[in-house]
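Batch job 17 of 40 flagged for manual review because the log was empty.
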Amino acid sequence: MGPPWGLAKTVRARNNASGPKREQRFPARAAKGRTMRSCVLLFLDAPEPGLESALPGDIRRAMAEDMLSMLRWAGAEVVVSYAPEWPVEEYQAWLGTDRTYWAQSGKGPGTRMANALRRALSVKKFDRAVLLFPDAPALTDETVRQALEALSWNSCVLGPSRDGGYYLVGFDQEGLLPDLFSRAEPGGPDVLARARNVLDIYRRRVTLVDDLPRVAELADLRRLAANPPRHLARSKALALVRALGQ
């Protein structure tokens, strides 16, 4: 099995507060008179054992690069949350040394996602943090800002994807709920519904931002390339897809 981002693999040793329950489709207003420290985690996951990606490594890398380019305008500190199966030096050689890199910890994507958000909110003391995946190229900086602004107190934000999952999840400090990722393990066509049920049980205030498609195979990118949104005019991933069709 090839590495997920076209990197050379290196073998290495390596508060549940309660609050009012509300679901909304619009961003909540942040606390007045206070500057909120915001973090965006770009989650570069490792593939499941024995599972080949349906997307070539160069296109997957280009999608991550496109996402990082967009996030420059999101008004938050951007952290690359990388799979530790590959050394940070490989990611730095690819994405540059001027970025913040945090190694994922734990077994399985759910545990790693929970730990990344915990590090941002409980250790680094950001007021709010969102975690997103690079496979939703239609995502814009405006939607990321809306997601962050929705996080005020005891709250969660989700970006629904059209496959029944989500491409973005975030919390504020008080609302952080690591149990979400064990009770609604990522994966499967109903993960969004299961996540919303868990958040309802724990009485988190939930905001849903834009419903977007996630890219799983080349056909998904070809459809996007045929009618790309304006912010993808210079997309590296779409340029590669168009080149494949020539």
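Reviewer: the log was empty due to a logging misconfiguration, but the result itself is present. The longest helix spans residues 57-71. Unflagging and moving on to job 18.
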